[in-house]
Structure formats: C-alpha cells, structure tokens
C-alpha cells in the first residue's frame, strides 16, 4: 500500500520544476492531485502527463478569491483536501534602489499572500471535515541567508518561515500539521541563470559541501515525507534542502 493512498493533495506552482515533481511524487504514492498554476498551457501539459488522478486549475494565487476557488474545485472534484503544498513563487532580481511598488507587491502577493490564502481556505475545509491534514509551505534558504539584488524575494521567503510557525501553532489543536521546506539551488527553470551559467555556477558550487546542485525529485521526497504518517509528530519546522550550503563556505584547511 502506497503511503498516500486515498489522499487528496493540492499543489500550487505545479506547472514545472519542483511543483511538478511534487505532483508526480504524490501521484506515484497513490494520491489524487489538483495542480494549480497561472500558466495554463504548461499546466495542462504537466497534468496530462500525471494521468487520470490529476486535475488542472488555472489561478493567480495572489488573489484570495482564486485560492478559495481552487480549494472548492479540489473538494468538488475529489470530495475533500488532505494535503496542501503551497509552492507557487517568483524570484525576480532587482537592486534595492530600483525596487518599485509593483515589483514589491508582486513578490509579496504571490510568495506570501498566495501561500496564506491557500492555507487559510484549505485549513477551513480540513477543520470542517475533521481532517487531520498537512500543509507544507515552500520557503527558501534565502529566508536564512540573503542574496544581493534579491530584496523582495529574500523578505518574502523570510516571512514564510514565520508563517510556518504561526500557522502550526494555531492549527495544532485541530490535528493539522504545518511545516515548510527551504530549498537551496535546485536544477529547475527558476535557477537556470545560476546552474547553466559557466561564469556563475562554479562559484555557487564552492559554497555547497555536497558539491552539486539539487534535483527537484529530492525536494519532492521531503514534501511527501512531511505529508506522511512517518512525520506524524513534526509540526512548525522548516526542513532545509540545500546540500549543506547554509552551513557556510567549506574551507579546506590543508590548502591554506
């Protein structure tokens, strides 16, 4: 028996990269999945690959009404929601002095508000049905160690670290567990400018003790674990998935 047999999972930011890998993982473990993304064409391609146990829902999660509609669609299609993986996010580099209202609001709207609104409506449905569910937010190692010219992204991901803890402490009484993940540099479209840049990639690799970039499947495995009974006493924590990058730059003392 697969560990997620019978569960219904909603994944945002599901059209590519880590979000798509999360959908694949849950499907492989017996779940039914509602994949949510703003990019309709890419989303439909991804869902077609997932098979009959997946549904597509096109939405801009920065708007609460869309998050509510996505959860309602999940319940309409599959009768309930057991797990939310709030993964939708953007990362657009911009120096501090060049930040404007639109840039700032776009990051807060998608990365923070979208996660909050989806969790809010998913949790209400879980509480109504007495579902001891799981919510997983996607933060980033940028929530711990900031990067230059990534102010809006850094701040939004830092906010998610506290959203994990705040949601967990409020929803624990209902048996709903809330955790987060903080990926490092993962080989996905959002990290192409680093991984496939010969001028930048070697410098990044020097900061990663495992000396390689992560794969989307490795992140999806952690999300699946956080939603499973194997993590039944884990809530309010953010799991760092970074090959050791946040430990600091490794120094070979013998070469000094």
Question: Overview of this structure, please?
Answer:
It is a single chain. The chain has 256 residues and is an alpha/beta fold. The chain has one domain: Rossmann fold, CATH 3.40.50.720. The protein contains 8 helices and 7 strands. The chain has helices spanning 17-28, 40-50, 64-78, 101-128, 151-171, 192-195, 201-205, 216-226; strands at 8-12, 32-37, 54-58, 83-86, 134-138, 177-183, 238-241. A 7-stranded parallel sheet has the order 3-2-1-4-5-6-7, sandwiched between helices. It is globular and about 50 Å long. The mean pLDDT is 95.
Average pLDDT, rounded to a whole number, is 95
Distance from first to last alpha carbon? 53 Å
Listing every helix as H and every strand as E from the N terminus to the C terminus, the arrangement reads EHEHEHEHEHEHHHE
| Overall 3D form | globular
Structure annotation, total helices: 8
CATH level-4 homologous superfamily: NAD(P)-binding Rossmann-like Domain
How many beta-strand segments? Answer: 7
Structural class: alpha/beta
**CATH architecture classification:** 3-Layer(aba) Sandwich
What is the percentage of strand-forming residues?
Answer: 5-15%
Show unreliable segments.
none
Rounded radius of gyration (Å): 18 Å
Count of domains: 1
Quote the CATH topology. Answer: Rossmann fold
Strand order of the largest sheet: 3-2-1-4-5-6-7
């Amino acid at each position: 028996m697969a560990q997620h047999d019978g569960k219904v999972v909603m994944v945002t930011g599901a059209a590519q990269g880590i979000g798509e890998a999360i959908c694949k993982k849950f499907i492989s473990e017996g779940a039914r999945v509602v994949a949510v993304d703003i990019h309709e064409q890419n989303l439909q391609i991804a869902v077609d690959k997932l098979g009959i146990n997946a549904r597509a829902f096109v939405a801009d999660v920065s708007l609460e009404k869309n998050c509510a509609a996505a959860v309602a669609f999940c319940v309409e299609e599959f009768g309930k929601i057991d797990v939310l993986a709030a993964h939708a996010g953007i990362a657009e580099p911009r120096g501090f002095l060049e930040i404007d209202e639109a840039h700032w609001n776009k990051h807060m709207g998608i990365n923070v508000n979208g996660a909050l609104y989806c969790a809010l409506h998913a949790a209400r449905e879980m509480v109504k049905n007495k579902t001891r569910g799981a919510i997983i937010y996607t933060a980033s190692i940028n929530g711990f160690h900031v990067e230059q010219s990534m102010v809006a992204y850094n701040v939004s991901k830092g906010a998610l670290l506290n959203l994990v803890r705040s949601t967990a402490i409020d929803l624990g009484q209902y048996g709903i567990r809330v955790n987060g993940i903080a990926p490092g540099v993962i080989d996905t479209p959002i990290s192409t400018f680093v991984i496939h840049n010969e001028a930048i990639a070697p410098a990044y690799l020097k900061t990663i003790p495992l000396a390689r970039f992560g794969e989307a499947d490795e992140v999806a495995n952690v999300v699946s674990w956080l939603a499973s009974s194997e993590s039944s006493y884990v809530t309010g924590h953010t799991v760092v998935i970074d090959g050791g990058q946040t430990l600091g730059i490794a120094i070979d003392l013998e070469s000094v």
